[in-house]
Amino acid sequence: MTEYELVDAIASYTGLLHSWLMAYFTVFTAYVVAAYAVGHQLTNFQSFVVTTCFLVLNLMVVVATMGTGMRFIELTQEISVINPERTYLVSPGLIVAAGVVLSIGILVSLKFMWDVRHPKP
């Protein structure tokens, strides 16, 4: 690929990463707000369905985010061969750390739902 094509692909992957993160935070926020507002009123089945949908969607988003991030890194490594003056502050470790943080967010939201549904006296 030419330098222009790589820059264009990097810009596309940056936009895709932002889209995945916004999808994550949208679903995360909706789940936490629903847990806070009506979590204590849900039946066990309703809670199971909502939580399962939340888990499936956000786990898919975490995997997609990490995959997109890794492809982004591959492209930045290719462009650094063509033009070593270009620098990008993204590394595989940062992508893995982002995946861990997003996964912790999922666990925290599940704990929040649990606490709402099982309040301590």
Task: Give a structural overview.
It is a single chain. This protein is mainly α. 83% of the residues lie in helices and 0% in strands. It has helices at residues 3-38, 44-82, 92-117. Helix 2 (44-82) runs antiparallel to helix 3. The protein is elongated.
Molecular shape = elongated
Number of helices, counting only DSSP H or I runs of 4 residues or more = 3
Helix and strand composition category: mainly alpha
Helix content: over 70%
The biggest sheet amounts to: none
- How far the N terminus sits from the C terminus, by CA atoms, comes to 63 Å
| pLDDT < 50 stretches | none
Work out the strand percent: under 5%
The secondary-structure element order is: HHH
Number of strands: 0
